[in-house]
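fyi for ur records
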Amino acid sequence: MITKDMLIGEILRTKPEAAQILMGFGMGCIGCPSSQMESLEQAAAVHGINVDDLIEALNK
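which gave:
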């Protein structure tokens, strides 16, 4: 289960198919170094994305 406090890098290692979902929400920089140390909640805030909607999509 993916939660808002998980790091982007951790999510991608756990669920590689999450990359398509993240990019679909406008997070095109998932491969950048900062994504390895940024939580899903932080990244969503930076990109103006509703974290709850994103988590719901990632956990389907």
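The domain at 8-59 is CATH 1.10.3910.10 (SP0561-like). thats all i got for now
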